[in-house]
Fold:
Amino acid sequence: MRTLSRTTVIVRRVLDAVLIALIFVVLFGVILGKIVPLTGRQTIIIGGQSMEPAIHIGSAIIVAPVGAAELRVGDVVSLRAGDDNALFTHRIVEVVDRPDGRWIRTKGDANASPDPTLVHASAVVGRVQLAIPLAGYLIALLSIPTGVLFLIGLAATLLAAVWLLESLELDSVDRGRAQDVSTLGPGLGEPLSARSSAARALAVEGGFGHVRLTIAEQIALSRATRERRDRWQATASERPDDPTD
Structure:
């Protein structure tokens, strides 16, 4: 019984930790997806491997606006280019100043050669300030209704399991302590029913759990107490006087 109780406590604490971790992870994803854009920055999910190993696929990057004059070789920037105006993130390998402005050439760290054409600095969305591995998957999950429902269901399941284990733990403690208290009853000489009621009363007074006596049990407890008091008084009256007095 005690081994089962300890196991229940350990499992409940593990589930508590998992539930707390899940809450913090979801809050972190909300901050990345909803709060960061309010600061003037953007959160972008990396869907390719061209920037491996610096930025892994599934990472979330935070990019901040940057002026053309601030662009330098070695900066990792997100920009839109091509006929479809696709958004990608590469590293600047060359900066070219022309009469019509600053142009840059970019290259993915994992690519063998630079991008084929120069890109005007106005196409740059921002410079990467922070890359968070795997956070992109979390943001993608929170951006779809099924993902939100999945996380809500997971949290509800963990919460229900914690409540159930906590109830089992409390019931086990109550039973164990009530049994410990009931072992004091046989030496008192009262009937078994009275000992059971007395044990429950002691459990209440000792704070052994949420125990409530019924009216019948309270009456039985009072009757047993009066009987013990009457027996004690009868025994005291029959006892011979102390000869030393």
